[in-house]
Structures are given as structure tokens and as C-alpha cells.
Amino acid sequence: MPGDALISDLTLPPNAAIPELxxxxxxxxxxxxxxxxxxxxxxxxxxxxxxVAVIVLHPAIARADETPGEASNATPRVFxxxxxxxxxxxxxxxxxALVAERSGRVLLLDGSTRSDLGTIAVPGSTVFxxxxxxxxxxLKDLIVAPGQPGTFYWCMTTGTTEAIRWTVGxxxxxxxxxxxxxxNEVVWQSEPQPWTRSSPPPFSGCRLxxxxxxxxxxxxxxxRAAAGGRIMRISASNAHQPQVLSTGHRNQSGLALMSGTxxxxxxGPKGGDEVNIIVPGGxxxxxxxxxxxxxxxxxxxxxxxxxxxxxxxxxWTPAIAPSSMTGRNEKLYIGMLRxxxxxxxxxxxxxxSQKRVLQxxxxxxxxxxxxxxxxxxxxxxxxxxxxxxxxxxx
Length: 394
Ligand SMILES: [Ca+2]
What we know:
By secondary structure, the protein is mainly beta. The protein has a domain at 39-65 and 84-330: Neuraminidase (6 Propeller), CATH 2.120.10. The protein is 4% helix and 44% strand. A five-stranded antiparallel beta sheet has the order 1-24-23-22-21, with no helix packed on it. Strands 7, 8, 9, 10 and 11 form a five-stranded antiparallel beta sheet that branches. A hairpin with a 4-residue loop joins strand 26 and strand 27. The longest helix is centred in the first third of the chain and has 11 residues, at 39-49. The model is unreliable at 1-55 and 65-73 (pLDDT under 50). The structure holds calcium ion. Calcium ion is lined by residues 274, 284-286, 289, 312.
């Protein structure tokens, strides 16, 4: 339960395995609570309260590209419950956030009010995912478009039961007259890949980071045969010709651009989870190079390093199962599907130390630094997930 979150000062050197998580509860989380009020009623109420101009952005949404402030004392609490397979949280003030669910639905959580803003959809196609593949496909990320209040970039799989592909798009959210609305625009699409239940394409995670006038897109590939994991840069002025920044990735699950350095985290095959620093043109080794378990029957014969490939900065075996990454104040925070959040303190391009700053018995799906005095926002995973606020000690 997220209510069992704790702050721990466990400190590990780089490249050390994360030990088993203790199961005892250490601190309670305050629970302001969401009553199960009708979402439609809440949306109507929010919309009615905002009918003040032809086009009016919700104040919280308009503030969405503010620079995060300083963290303060640790006070984890449950901000919302009952989220349905959320994939991304976008903090927009100290007391408001957007949450993107795998189905494409976007919610505005503002204090104790919850508004359903609608579902991101692409004309002629829809978000596509298969429920029995719980960790791939669907709407996978949502981020603020810098300098464009009310505008957000997203990444999802779209298609049909025959073929699916990655679609990166942009959405403008308006909460002015009438119902909240979302205007969706496709920025880039991958080639469609044939899809069958017995031979699914190697789609996996997709994470975004804002950079300059564009975005950086990390698209994962799962399985040894899938060598397609890459990171691209898509500029606003030339979206149809993405620049490939790096290749040789496996199932990326987090990007963080901090002090001019692009950090990435990805899943290894069995252990061998990696943090990398992304250099344009870099080859990061997969599927030939991995620090994963050498006894892994499915993936034997890895090279540990290889001339021409860039080694990771930090690795974990056994796996921490990273789901997400965010950066602030020379610290990287990594959400873990194993539960919890770890903090890496970095100096330039060196990871100096690690410590766990949150433990949960549930999977963590996303962690994101937000504005205001507090905090990290942390999403748990699954059909009845929670949104937590966490303020790690400085
Ligand atoms: Ca690698």
C-alpha cells in the first residue's frame, strides 16, 4: 500500500545491488482523500467555474512550465487514489497535477477536485494496447511543452489489431467555455509494425524529455531479437525527420535532462539495469553487451563491454526494474517497478552515491519533480493506483 511508504537513509555505493526491501512500515502518510464523487459532476463543476473567457487555460495548466523549486522536508502523503493504470504524472503546481492513464485518458487533479479532461486520440486511429500485456503499449508518457502554456507532448501506441506503431503528438488542453477540451496533433509516427497475438512487435516503453524547441524520445525494444531501442530528437521545425541520437538500448523507461546532460535508464534482460549518459551518435551495446545475469538461459553470451559501445554509468543486478526517472538539483530519482524510489546524487557525469527515498509495496510507475516547496510526485501502478507526494530530505 502507498500508505506504507517510508523514508530511508540507506546509502549504497555506485554499482551496488539494491538489497531486499524491508517490509515494515515506518511512517504514516496523511490522506486528504478523494471521495468517490462523480467524475462527470466534478468535471462539470470545474468547467463551469472556468467560463470566464473564450479561451481560458486552467490556471494550474497555464503554470505548467514553471521551473521546479527547492525540495523541503520529507512529508510523503497520498494525493489521490483510484487511478486506472496511470503511466505519467505532470506536476503543474504544488497542489495540482495532470495524470495520463494508459487508455489515453487525462485527468486534472487540482486540490481535492478531479476533472476528466478527455482521451487523447489520433484521427483515424486510436490508442492501442492489449490488457494482457500490462507493461507495454498505450499512452506511455506526457510532458509539458516548454514555453507553450497549456500544451503537452505525449507518446503512445496507436493502430489496430493488425498493425500498431508509435505516435508522438502534441495536445493543447483548454478548460474555458463548456467542457474541458483537448486538441490533438500528430508530430511523428513510426512505421506500422504487423501485430499478432502469437508474434507481437517488440514495443515497450516510451519516455519523453523536453529539449530546446523540441523533444527527445526514447523508444524501447524488448527481447534479444529486438535491436531497435533508440533515442531520437524531434525538433518542432522539422518533426518529420527525427535525428537519431543513440542506438543499442533495451526497453528504456526514463529520461532526465539535467544541467545539459541527458540521462537515461533502461531495463536489462535479467539484472543489468542501466543508467546511461546519452552522447549523440552513441551505441549503447544492446543486444550484444549487457551486465545482466550470465546464467540467464534466454540471453547467454553477453559481452561485458565492447570497443565502440558506451558502457553504462551505473548498473544493477539483480534488477531494480526502473519505470521512470526525473532530475533536480544534481539528483536523479528513479521509480522502481520493484517498489519505491531511489535517489542518485551526481557530480557532473559521475554518480556519487545512491539511497532509497521511498519504499512502497506497490510498483512505482512514474516519478516526476514538481514546482513548489515540496516535491516529487510518485505514481503507483495498476488498475487502482495512487498518486503520492514526496519531499526527500536535501
Ligand atoms: Ca547498454
